[in-house]
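Request: Mind sharing a record?
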Amino acid sequence: MLETRQGSFNKVGQGQPEDTSDNGDETAQTQHGCPVLGRLIVAGANFRTANLAVRSSLAITEHCLGPFLRGLQEQGVEECFALSTCNRVEVYALTPRNEIVLKALSDRCGSPFGSVRDQLYVHAGTDAIKHLLRVVWPRIAQAIMSAIVAKRH
């Protein structure tokens, strides 16, 4: 079992979390003085970490999105949203226990957690925010540029 702690895990079950605290007084529920950051995680798989079969089984379609997210909330996840594309499936959540999200993802594969754990990743706290910005910023910048630069056809 993994615990949500300060820092991040590059891959589930590998390595120790990095200490990203500014001082030694912060707890697992608080990061950089913000109680929400201590509970924020992103868990998922992308084309770099998971093969096509796993990514396909993880895919969250529109008709199963509601039940999937409600299931997470029923298990104690405070807030959550999912990002599902052809190249990645990620769940962003506020939870003190990231294993809830990891188990839900492995259940989507129809496989025991141990069989897909090497293909999943988890980022916590500020690392989760950095990851989100790395994922969405190129698309935001592209949208801004296409709105600013008039293209002649």
Summary: Strands lie at 40-46, 79-84, 88-94, 121-124. Confidence is low (pLDDT under 50) at residues 1-28. The first strand starts at residue 40 and ends at 46.
